[in-house]
Amino acid sequence: MHTHSSIFSHLEQDIAFSKKLCYIKSVVKFSKIVKEEKALEEIRFTVKLADVPIGVSVLYDTTKRFCREYLTGEEPSFSVAVTPADILSERQKADPAYHFSDAYLETLALYRKIAAGLLDYQTLLFHGSVVAVDGQAYLFTAKSGTGKSTHTRLWRELFGSRAVMVNDDKPLLRIEDERAVACGTPWNGKHRLSTNIAVPLKAICILERSVENHIEPVTARKAWPMLLQQSSRPSDPGKLAQTMCLIDRLSANVKLYRLGCNMEQSAAITAYEGMQ
Fold first, then answer.
1. Is 196 helix (H, G, I), strand (E, B) or coil?
2. Cβ atoms < 10 Å from Cβ of 3
3. In the chain, what are the domain boundaries?
4. Distance between CA atoms of 49 and 57, rounded to whole angstroms?
5. Angstrom distance (rounded) from CA 187 to CA 172
6. What pLDDT, on a 0 to 100 scale, did the predictor assign at position 30?
7. At 145, is the secondary structure helix, strand, or coil?
8. Residue 49 burial (C-beta neighbours within 10 Å; 0-12, 13-18, 19+)
9. What is the mean pLDDT of the chain?
10. In the predicted model, is pLDDT for residue 35 greater than 50?
11. Which pLDDT tens digit goes with each residue over 193-205?
12. Helix (H, G, I), strand (E, B) or coil at 73
């Protein structure tokens, strides 16, 4: 018959063994990452985003092809590198229902690092769809599924050759003294719509679904929560503070609107006329 002391002794041994096993597994996992990191050959190139040359070191040549329209031979202002550990981190953040390739996850890790570095150059990564008409850019932002891309498609249909897509998903916004400039990037959404251009940003419009089309100006205070939500928010406290300062400047430099709209052509007319 086992005594209480012997039972507890066995239990302590089991716990100690479990801890040791977990430690061994973590060491093996880390060692595997290090070996992969050494085995994969680095691919180096320079991209120019928001007028800033950036040195890039990655592991997959598909990433260089992904950035092909933004390659430059200029001397980098700063450099970033993606490692297998960065790709693993992106996989842990991703929805497990989707089986993303390491090559795709590398592009996400790369843009995350680029966005953090560009904060030092007064440039913000923003989630929205930007269309330019007659040399002025209009950014539409909203919660996913509201219809940002559908709305900018209506603009392209309405204005024809006068309209150019700057970026359909993740543009860069360069905040200058008295204005903001919307910049194209290769991270341009599922429709792959973007142009390697930089266009003065005339307005930011927060989209909402509505049966009737209507638009009105909004204050920076009312728009601020959405602007923060739609901006890339680094985990580093210092970088997050930089982001919030840039959002303050963005909301001071650019006109802000709220658009209630349906998915008809008249919505584009209402939006355009309301922001003139």
1. coil
2. 8
3. 43-121, 124-274
4. 16
5. 10
6. 44
7. coil
8. buried
9. 89
10. no
11. 999 999 999 999 9
12. coil
pLDDT given for residue 175 in this prediction: 98
Tokens 């239990």 locate to 11
How large is the average pLDDT for residues 64-93? Answer: 97
Residue 31 has pLDDT above 80, yes or no: no
Only one residue has tokens 């202002």, namely 77
Asked whether 233 and 240 are in contact (CB, 8 A), the reply is yes
| Distance from C-alpha of 49 to C-alpha of 197, rounded to nearest angstrom | 10
Contact 178, 200 (CB under 8 A): no
Contact 108, 101 (CB under 8 A): no
Q: Name, in order, each residue with C-beta under 8 angstroms of 35's C-beta and a sequence gap of 6 or more.
A: none
Burial class of 188 by CB neighbour count within 10 A (0 to 12, 13 to 18, 19+): buried
Q: Name the 3-class secondary structure at 79.
A: strand
Mean pLDDT over residues 208-212, rounded? 93
Burial degree of 136 (CB within 10 A; 0-12, 13-18, 19+): middle
Q: Cα 275 from chain centroid? A: 26
When mean pLDDT is compared across 34-48, 80-94, 127-141, 220-234, the lowest value belongs to 34-48
Residues 6+ apart with CB under 8 A from 249: 122, 175
User: Rounded to an integer, what distance in angstroms lies between the CA atom of residue 206 and that of residue 193?
Assistant: 20
Task: Return d(Cα 200, Cα 202) in angstroms, integer.
Answer: 6
Q: Phi and psi of 124, rounded to 5°? A: -120, 135
Assign a CATH topology to domain 124-274: Phosphoenolpyruvate Carboxykinase; domain 3 (3.90.228)
What gap in Å lies between CA 126 and CA 169, rounded to an integer?
Answer: 8
Q: Where are the alpha helices (DSSP H) in the chain?
A: 4-39, 61-66, 84-93, 102-118, 148-159, 220-229, 237-253, 265-274
